[in-house]
Amino acid sequence: MKIQSLGILAFCIPLAGVAWGDTLVLRNGAHMAGQFVSAQNGNIVFTIQGQRNRRFNVNEVARIEFNRAGETGDRFNSDSYGDDQHAQYDGYRNRPDYRDQPQASAIDSKYQDMSKAGLGMGQPIAAEQVSADGEGRYRVYQNSTLYWSPNSGAHEVHGGIREQYIRLGAENSRLGYPLSDEVPAQDGSGRTNRFEHGSIYWSPRTGARVDYTR
Fold it and tell me: Residue 167, SS3?
């Protein structure tokens, strides 16, 4: 029970007090440097350098760049599977998403499939949970989280991408549910997950970046 409570808090408590140098990009082209604070109830709270917190409607926002480059040992700048598993993991990406399975078995089937492929999701650290929308489900593992909904199927999110997804509100955020597992980015150096309404890109150089679709 304590683990589940901590998981819920991770979606709600802003991580403040550190000047991380984030960038908020609005749809009108404006770029604002500062610090991401929270994302709740359709709004993004962002501290602009030298100013107080400002609240932006999520529909105004085109992208959030979480700039973590150069911070050694930073969990936001890490890939929990490691480079040595990327080739094995990337070969897995076309496996079934179990969209046609009942809620109670889809996540477990996905987990078993990934475990057989030798991917290091780790052991479950909480029971499978029903999402706030009452339709989707998710389960947290040591190194990854699996999400499922009738429209998106079952997909996993891990590493720095998972950390930013959680900070934004995970499946309850504007991004919605994941539509893919982590795959190589088109630039050949980064990693990415696609979601219902956008994507999160990660690389060792840039950290995580959120791009919303229109």
Answer: helix
Of 179, 210, 206, the C-alpha closest to 58 is 210
Task: Write the burial class of residue 14 (CB in 10 Å: 0-12 exposed, 13-18 middle, 19+ buried).
Answer: middle
Measured in residues, the chain has a length of 214
Cβ-based neighbours of 177, under 8 Å, separated by 6 or more: 136, 147, 148, 149, 151, 152, 155, 171, 195, 196
The model's pLDDT over 72-113, given as tens digits with 9 standing for 90+, comes to 333 333 454 444 455 556 666 667 788 876 656 799 999 988
Predicted TM-score of the model (pTM):
0.73
How does pLDDT run across 4-13, given as a tens digit for each residue? 322 322 333 3
Sign of the C-alpha dihedral computed for residues 37, 211, 59 and 166 taken in this order? negative
Rg (C-alpha) for the chain, rounded Å, is 17
CA–CA dist 167, 188 (Å, integer): 26
- Give residue 62's Cα distance to chain centre: 17
3 state SS of 182: coil
CB contact at 8 A, 43 and 58:
yes
Q: How is 30-81 classified by DSSP, letter by letter? A: -EEEEEEEEEETTEEEEEETTS-EEEEEGGGEEEEEEE-TT-TT-GGG--TT
